[in-house]
Amino acid sequence: MSRRHHPRKVVAPPAFKGYRPYGTSVDSQGEVELLYEEYEAIKLADYDGMLHREACMLMGISRPTFARIYESARRKIAHALVEVKTIKSVYGNASFDKNWFSCKSCHALFTMPRQIDDKTCPMCHTEEIIFINEPK
Q1: Which DSSP string corresponds to 20-86?
Q2: In this structure, which CATH number among 1.20.1740, 2.60.40, 2.20.28, 2.170.120 belongs to the domain 96-136?
């Protein structure tokens, strides 16, 4: 019997819902789901330039687990690029320290302290917002 997966700490959700191939005569042949924790691993290691040792401590996971998540993310991105597939961001097994919301109208991502009852988008002031996570 396998062990239970603990949620991986993610600082912020990706600012995109997905990417589509552009400039090809072939229509997209399906999609690849990139989990929030895989996005976070790519961001920390490649974009922020962190060592795996530092990144795994930030995400609250072991070094081998970080390496597996990072490798999975790289393979998925390569698969999507080579086979002309859409990349879609998916919640996965992530946990956030803050409440994250997404606006249906302007697609803004934002946080809001728990004590504020005003549930409107700070950018366009619409009430059509989606609660993204359940913080720990």
Answers
A1: ---S-SSPP--EEEEEHHHHHHHIIIIIS---HHHHHHHHTS-HHHHHHHHHHHHHHHHHHHHTT-E
A2: 2.20.28
